[in-house]
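@channel sequence for tomorrow's demo:
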Amino acid sequence: MNGPDLTVQLVIMRLLAGVIIFIVHGIAIAGAAVALGDRGPAHDGRLQWPPWGHVSILGLGSLMLTGFGWSQPVAIETGKLRFGRASLVLVVLAGSAALLLLGFLLLLLAGPSLKSLDFTTGLTVAAFVRVAGRLCVWMALFSLLPIPPLAGAHLLTALGYTPPQKAGFFIGWGLLLASLFGVTQQLLMPLYQLVAPLVLGVDVALTF
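structure tokens (generated this afternoon):
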């Protein structure tokens, strides 16, 4: 996922893609929680404009460097959810599903960009949507890991264990290091190779 060369262009693309991904992911999780009965995320401003509250600085920095990051966690009150702790599974899945859909929609822009824009701009936009599309799939899978500060930490709560609130910050640095040394990519690669071709097509999915 890190690729052979971390170029300035790739870092900038990851920055732009990361902001979009974090916003979509955060809104999907907050929206699902609200739909299932917890109005808290709406009161916390997670469904308001501008949506910058979804962006985690450390998570974005990790994404820019390693290709893996995380959005700002959404606080959810389990007792207010329609199906109790089981609703948290639906909330987490909603976030990942939104990213897979985003990746699919972004790839649809590649062809029109090459046809309607000038040569250089078209190539740049097409390259961006391909990078962003792959990031969407990686992030959809990565966010399912039941580790704070990832959205998957809600799965621990669904099982009856709530991680300490401060744990996310310290574990986040550990996730950054693990991703930097390729551990995260190797862990998720088999699942990525299964899911990504279905969302992005084989040619785009398996290009690094």
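heads up for whoever presents: Residues 108 and 194 are 20 Å apart (CA to CA).
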